[in-house]
Amino acid sequence: MNIEAEKTIMGHPRALFVLFFAEMWERFSYYGMRALLVLYMTKAMSYDDHLAHGTYGAYIGFVYATPIIGGALADRFLGARKAIILGGILMAFGHFIMAIESPFFFYLAMGLIIAGNGFFKPNVSTMVGSIYEKDDPRRDSAFTIFYMGINMGAFFAPLACGWLGETYGWHYGFGLAGIGMVCGLLVFLKWQHLIGQHGLPPRPEALWEPSKIGIPKTLLLWIAIAAFIPFAAYLLKNPDWVQRGVYVLGPLTLIYIAYEAMRCTPVERGRLIVLTILITFSITFWSCFEQAGSSMTLFADRKVDRHVFGWEIPTTWLQAVNPGFILLFGFIFSYLWTKLGRANRDPSSPLKFSLGLIQLGLGFVAMVIAAQGAQDGSLVSIWWMILAYMLHTTGELCLSPVGLSTVTRMSPTRLVGFMMGVWFLSNAFAGVLSGIIAGETSGEAGYETVFLKIVYFACGVGVTLLILTPLLNRLGPDPKIIAQKAARAAGRSE
Predict the structure, then answer these.
(1) CATH code of the domain occupying 240-494
(2) 12-237: CATH topology
(3) What secondary structure letter does DSSP report for 444?
(4) N or C: more exposed end of the chain, with fewer CB within 10 A?
């Protein structure tokens, strides 16, 4: 497809906006369900806080782990386009089944959503990159627009699904999330012709070729999905098993990275080691950040005065604050990094990661103050939580998009895809760990103690990384930093 010759919107091919709206509606469905999840378990299903937090953490872990499989299957034989459609169908069914208030259907629905997310999430992002040439200067702008679509969906989902679920009934909120997913699927189906030949199966004839065990590949895929859904549902019902799995899979991943590092050149090896260290530090960030959907949600529901101008804000609406701040600050940070880059002063990735962790920790200082104010049974001001979310968001903007960029820059060429998978897998580990951390708030420790530990932990890890930054910059020189130093030296010589 000739991108230059086709009609454009804002200078970008129309295909970008097909993917923008498909992803926006998919994120609407995901965050709409996520906003209600812990509240539904503790109120409608009468789960204790510990089990609710553990189930939430296991769910987040699965959501970030399955894209590795879905992306690989799309690359090898399914194609990104069919993977997106398959994922959308599975998730739509999952959200609608979630509207049936029954423990059996609850876990079945989450299994469907997890399976569908694995196919949809990685491949819609991959297709954004596929519609541009690698040297197209519009690529960064395109991903910025796409990222705004994600956060638009995340912003409106708690406002709509959360309000409907809390006000009129849980099944209405979950049902609206399902409608959102159907909207995203319909957008993609109706306008997929604008994407041209991108995302088609590598070899269409391979879809029905026999697999190694003699079963056609497509049929084998459906059998695997049918087997995975009850397996995932069982593990979600027993989140302790998911937590044990993290302790096994994590070391195995590090062992394989070490094996690959031995096969690299010295420069590649140093960069791979630095990247692995940064990914490990990011687990700390996300395990604390994900308290937003678990312990912070229950704290907001029970301990916060949510009355504004005489009207009580639904608990779920507070989960719209983070994506709202991202929409507000995202372009500001993008402009800041670009401006510093043009001046050859863009900070290194370890420095940005450390700043993100420290800001996250400072956000939990606000939560500690709020928890202290609620000790005597009083309701505390909603502004403490808004301050916490603001600092968490600025920390996220220092770490999340920077992390994706760092993976593509610092990975050896033959390992870029694998290390991107490790980046998402680290989010899965963090999701499970977030459930363990949140579960501590239901014990004797309580909110204040747990939030204070997070302050010490996040800030301590952030300061440690700050101290290690010069060493990491020498161990694995970032190509971006090398280029900046060369440009500054050239400027001085002139």
Answers:
(1) 1.20.1250.20
(2) Growth Hormone; Chain: A; (1.20.1250)
(3) S
(4) C
